[in-house]
Amino acid sequence: MPWYRVYFLSRNGDIRNVDEFVVTDDDTALALADRVHEAVSDLYAGYELWQDSRRIYRCAHPASRPFLPQHIFTQGMQAELLRRLKILQSGGTAFGRSLRLAERLNELEDVLGPRRRKRFG
């Protein structure tokens, strides 16, 4: 499966942080990257999604977020998002300072419940 990187951008477009993950395809990667960015949008103005040397998408500010059909956000995708957000929050980086991230984690845990957290891939 392909390896993806999400670069989180300041208001000036500078790279301020990064996350990496493996998923099946570009559409899934974009959906996950966008949801991760939304969860830390109190810290970062935008993001870029890359797979190797290929830039897949650039969101310079919240108004330029991609249109993603609701059916993409399956329970498996939500579980993977929860897993990623927990990793980011506990990683000892700036992500841990995001208040929005903590809120999003609580929301996802309420939706998924303790028995429905499955790995998505």
Number of strands: 4
Please report the number of helical segments. 3
Note the overall shape. Answer: globular
Helix content: 25-40%
Largest sheet descriptor: 4 strands, antiparallel
The stretches of 5 or more residues where confidence is low (pLDDT under 50) are none
- Taking Cα atoms only, what radius of gyration do you get, to the nearest Å? 13 Å
- What structural category characterises the helix and strand content? alpha+beta
N-to-C SSE string, H for helix and E for strand: EEHEEHH
Strand content: 15-25%
Total domain modules = 1
3D structure, described in words:
- The chain contains three helices and four strands, in the order E-E-H-E-E-H-H.
- The chain has one domain.
- The radius of gyration is 13 Å and the shape is globular.
- Helix 1 (26-39) crosses helix 2 (75-90).
- It has helices at residues 26-39, 75-90, 99-112; strands at 3-9, 15-22, 46-51, 54-59.
- The model has no long low-confidence stretch (mean pLDDT 88).
Q: What is the fold's blueprint, element by element?
A:
Elements: E1 3-9, E2 15-22, H1 26-39, E3 46-51, E4 54-59, H2 75-90, H3 99-112
Antiparallel strand pairs: 1-2, 1-3, 3-4
Helix pairs in contact: 1-2, 2-3
